[in-house]
Amino acid sequence: METIRPQKVIDFSYTLKNSQGQVIDSSDEGPMSFLTGSGQIIARLEEELSGMLIGQKKTVSLSASEAYGVIDPAMIINVAKSDLAHLKDLEVGTFLQLDLGEDMKVLRVTAVTDASVTLDGNHPLAGQDLVFDVELVNSRPASAEEISHGHAHGPGGHHHH
Ligand code: ZN
Fold this sequence. Notes:
By secondary structure, this protein is mainly β. It is built from two helices and nine strands; from the N terminus they run E-E-E-H-E-E-E-E-E-E-H.
């Protein structure tokens, strides 16, 4: 049976490392906030954080499929360079936005030759096992406004209004 849990806003700090122990990202500008149940962060990480106490620290290891997914070869395409002639300064690491009407797809340039450009629509961290060192900074019930907006407010959350 499905359990309906009240939505919470969780603040946490983190250091993200790859499986070789290299630091990829961290919350050095202050804790990150998210609204539970909104799909804002990796599901396994949300599950772990939801069961932690304020001040508790934990190391969460995720396989690629639990994190940003495995690499989908169908998302890697080669395009003739002449088709992208209107784009200046194309180089490896450039992100392009492809407008597909309903959604916006972000593609990363992964190779450039004289004749073609390789574009990769996989998440940059797809195919990687990841390790998060996390600390639960705060956890509180979400406000009605946050639930209706679908995101957390306040420092570390969504800035607008
Ligand atoms: Zn809002």
